Amino acid sequence: MNSTIKNKAPRLLATGAIVGSLLTVPVTAAATPTQACVEDEGVTVVVDFTDLGGEVEIGCAPGEPENGREALEGAGFSPEDSMPGMVCTINNLPDPCPEEFEGDFWSYWSGEDDDWAMYDVGLDEATPEPGDVEGWRYSDGSEGPTITPTEALAEAGDGDGDEVTEGEDTDGDSATVDSEDDSSAALPTWAFVVVAVAIIGGVVALVVRRRQQ
User: Fold this and answer.
1) Angle (CA) 21 26 27, round 5°
2) Is residue 33 part of a domain?
3) Which CATH number is 53's domain given?
4) Which ranges in the chain belong to alpha helices (H)?
5) Residue 162 backbone class (left: φ over 0; alpha: ψ -120 to 50; beta: rest)
6) What are the backbone dihedrals phi and psi of residue 200, each rounded to the nearest 5 degrees, phi first?
7) pLDDT digits over 126-172, tens only?
8) How many alpha carbons fall within 13 Å on the CB side of residue 129?
9) How many domains are contained in the chain?
10) Does 71 reside within a domain?
11) Which domain holds residue 96?
12) Residue 76 needs a FRET pair 20 to 30 A away by CA distance; which of 64, 83, 132, 180 works?
């Protein structure tokens, strides 16, 4: 009987590894910019990459972000600071982060209907509220993002990736804003738990059966 159980040890170890891998599979995807918030479900964040050769991207930070940084990150963007409170790159742009100030920077804006007003505080001190629109643009700071807050909010809730909004950049060229559908959601946690329990139950039943033999 002991030899039988010892012979089953490799199988048990292999099964345990499988169970472990199932339980460690990420069950939620990282937030990515997709569209504006619907009504007051969170803070809409607009990041204008047009001066860096990119596009205008819109994301929703759900709930009540504690500050502007939490709103930016909650909307799916990744800021990095050159010094505390001073954003140097968003989503690794510009690349590399300038070592010296050359006139352009990530300016931080608050949306007011069809206009942008530059914040007079940093992102760690700002306190956006649900329903607000935040804006970021890498430029000389003379103008906000190339789409208005109203245009950004028009992207809310379409969810099919077909909605397109165009705005004018400083050179008069249009910048396209695409709302991408993130329909590939990960399996819920309970599904992995059910599979793991079923596997463990099968292993226990096998061991008990072998002992009884």
Assistant:
1) 115
2) no
3) 2.170.130.30
4) 2-7, 9-23, 68-74, 149-153, 189-212
5) alpha
6) -60, -40
7) 999 999 999 999 999 999 999 999 999 998 865 443 333 344 433 33
8) 1
9) 2
10) yes
11) 42-178
12) 83
Cα 150–chain centre separation: 22
User: Which SS3 state, helix, strand or coil, does residue 42 take?
Assistant: strand
Q: Give residue for tokens 């007003």.
A: 117
Judge if 7 and 75 occupy the same domain: no
Degrees (nearest 5) of the Cα angle 158, 51, 173?
70
pLDDT for the residue numbered 136: 98
Tokens at 111, concatenated: 């949306």
Averaged over 180-206, what is the pLDDT?
Answer: 47
State both tokens at 197: 């329990």
Tokens of 142: 């003379």
The 3-state DSSP class for residue 161 equals coil
Hey, what are 110's tokens? 């608050």
